[in-house]
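Quick start: read one record
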Amino acid sequence: MNTISILGSGRVASPIAAKLAVGGHDIAIGSRDPVAAAAKWTGPAVRHMDARAAAGGAQIVINATPGDSALARLSELRQELEGKILVDVSNASARDTNGMPAGLLYTEGSLGERLQEALPGTRVVKTLNTMLFSVMADPRSLATAPSVFMSGNDEGAKATVAALLGELGWPQDWIVDLGDIASARATEALMLMVPHVLRRFGFKPFALSLAR
């Protein structure tokens, strides 16, 4: 059992937190308003606290906060994240008037790379950022076997994250290790397809995958 903190309490964080809590992990949800987040929570037993306390008390931290503010938010937690594995599932996108991705904030790189640069003592792994949030903890909800990509510099951290992905329902042969954290720029760029996919098919579960 691991102590895992999830930063964020919205629709991305909730299914991940619930699935891992059911799997027996000690889950803390870190948010700006823990009291309000706890009042809305309807899942299995988890702990609610502020983001700094959550990050400091965990072995593994999952960033499920908005990508456009994640770099500034997590840079403030550098001490708490020292020596930890940081799983980043967000995308740093500019938004159009409908709230859909309209461009990349980091056109020469990626949020994953920026986080690793800002947090040199933290092992950053990018994953789960190429699908609708509902698929992250329920990949078998799709009719076609999806892929989940991983990027990170530390092989041990990626092995730990791959095991967590397995607990979220991802078979090992659906996990694609793309290499170091620089490869995160490729998966983050895939999110520019999202508004077009949603306009074409509606707000339905999907994942951008590799056919092999």
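The radius of gyration is 16 Å.
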